[in-house]
Amino acid sequence: MAPSLFLSFSVILTWTSWTCATPRQKEKVERSDIFSGDEWDSLYKEAEKLIGTSKTVLNDSIRQELVMEILNDEYGKRSAEPLPLAAKRNGNTAYITWSSSSTILDAMNCKKKFTLWPEHHCEKFKVEETDNGPQVTKAIIRKLATDKLITVKAKVFIACGGPILTPQLLFNSGFVPTKPNRDPRTQIPLEDDEKGIPPPPDTLEHLKLPALVRYMPRLFVVYQLTVC
């Protein structure tokens, strides 16, 4: 995920964002003393190897040269260095691959257990009738590098997009929230039931999910797509 296009989540004022910047903490400033200096150095080296930290990935960037020149002119006694980034150049091209969880799994030699597809986006599930009733039988995947759509077939699909992205995927797959009179689990009457929107009349029963996005905190969960 590039710094110019990243996802940020806020849950009750707790922010997390991944911009691929991986600097080491300064001793006696931010760094904890739970490990010795040698232990910290060893752990940092191992982590940087797994995540693919590099200080040279933007060496050809005019912006980086300009920023470092300004910093060195302003703070002459403290030499500016390139920001360590978890990223790598794609051969001799201008394209950069930004590290993610797939980078770590790939470095841990997990290929024998499963296949990793970084830089792919799951757009929707395909629900079809089977001998066991309606089931998700396919996933439509977009390869971001070429914008090509790929159809993946499997016996079981697991969506792990969290409380925000997973409902989006399900809704885009044709699943819709319904307007029940009572909570489907506790049977407690829903206070906002009258404000709900019923699903389209032609919606198939297996596509109705009563709790879809219904229990998501409205004020404290923020999904933000930032383009800098």
From TrEMBL:
Cofactor(s) annotated in UniProt: FAD
Keyword Oxidoreductase on entry: yes
InterPro entries: FAD/NAD-bd_sf, P2Ox-like
GO molecular function: oxidoreductase activity
Signal peptide as annotated in the record: 1-21
Region (Disordered): 176-201
UniProt entry keywords in alphabetical sequence: FAD, Flavoprotein, Oxidoreductase, Signal
Family the UniProt entry places it in: Belongs to the GMC oxidoreductase family.
Full protein name: Unnamed protein product
Biological classification of the source: Eukaryota, Fungi, Dikarya, Ascomycota, Pezizomycotina
